[in-house]
Amino acid sequence: MARYRAVDLFAGIGGIRLGFEEAFGTDIETVFASEWDRYALRTYKANFRTPREIAGDITAIPEKDIPPFDICLAGFPCQAFSLAGFRKGFKDNFKGLCRGTLFMDVARICEYHSPKVIFCENVKGLHFHDHGRTFKIITETFKELGYTVHWKLLNSKNFGVPQNRERVYIAAFRNDIDSSGFEFPEYTRKGKVLRDIIEEVPVDTRYYLSVNYLETLRKHKARHREKGNGFGYEIISWDGVAHAIVCGGMGRERNLIYDPRQTSFVPTSPIRSAVNREGIRRLTPRECARLQAFPDDFVLNLADGHLYRQLGNSVTVSVIAAAAEKIKEVLDKNRF
């Protein structure tokens, strides 16, 4: 049997779980998972066989119905705190769910079960949202529950992937556990560049921008340049580092690349004009997965639109694994 039992709350496609499994190996077992997005569930179930049943809306699940656990993995939704959103924090409301307050479900579940460790990941904006008051509420809540809180702002580009992605990471240890020597890692692997994650063979023409859309992007960028803004598409060098991948929309056009390997310009998806012959394309879902340090055997079997959103919403597995290794050191030192 595994030494540590974990729950995977707001599991998404399982990035946090994957990082902890990389660090803990057979010493960890996921005994409960929750995710309400049906498409994320399909990806999760395609890659993880346990637990057999994945819970849905965590707000409707009594804490007593969750099995006992040692480690809480909680990538609670970040939209309420993101720089890209309205940053309403605990007042944010979406489809009847207060996304900002979903953190409170983490608190109620952990108050009931008193796990050894609570681990959270969220956007950079969480730290200074509402002049720091939101972050203070979160950390003070953990302290009131009897935990010592450690946190750090880490950048994925320092953990073996060419992606400039800053996120806040929180590790809260129960007060009877000596975590005085715990420190988040700041760097683990030699930096990589975009060419390290580019697909090995020419990709389908559906990833290449149409002539009309490329012209639209150029006009959009020119308009903002005239206003003194830096908005607009960007072509990243193969020897460069990508911007943070996002869920969708125009944000993906900040990570275009020049790839002349495709010599067929026959469209394989509905477009209103010809495929551009300049070699300008989007990153593929597999390349985005590599930017998040997902292994190549991680199953991506949904439509591209769903995959882009899921990967943009997910975590960088290598950062999670590096942090999890430090957490495991503390737990092993305490002989749990």
Word description of this protein:
The protein is α/β, with parallel strands linked by helices and about 325 residues long. The protein folds into two domains: about 5-190 and about 315-335, Rossmann fold (3-Layer(aba) Sandwich); about 200-285, no CATH class. The chain has helices at about 15-25, 40-45, 100-115, 125-130, 135-145, 210-225, 285-290, 305-315, 315-335, and strands at about 5-10, 30-35, 70-75, 115-125, 145-155, 165, 165-175, 235, 240-245, 255-260, 280. A six-stranded mixed beta sheet has the order 2-1-3-4-7-5, sandwiched between helices. Strands 8-10-11 form a three-stranded mixed beta sheet, with no helix packed on it. A two-stranded parallel sheet has the order 6-9. Strand 1, helix 1 and strand 2 form a beta-alpha-beta unit. It starts with a strand and ends with a helix. Mean pLDDT is about 90; it is low at about 80-85 and about 90-100.
Give the secondary structure arrangement, pairings included:
Layout: E1 4-9, H1 15-24, E2 28-33, H2 38-47, E3 71-74, H3 102-113, E4 117-123, H4 125-128, H5 133-144, E5 147-155, E6 163-164, E7 166-174, H6 211-226, E8 235-236, E9 242-243, E10 256-258, E11 280-281, H7 285-291, H8 304-313, H9 317-333
Parallel strand pairs: 1-2, 1-3, 3-4, 6-9, 8-10
Antiparallel strand pairs: 4-7, 5-7, 10-11
Helix pairs in contact: 1-9
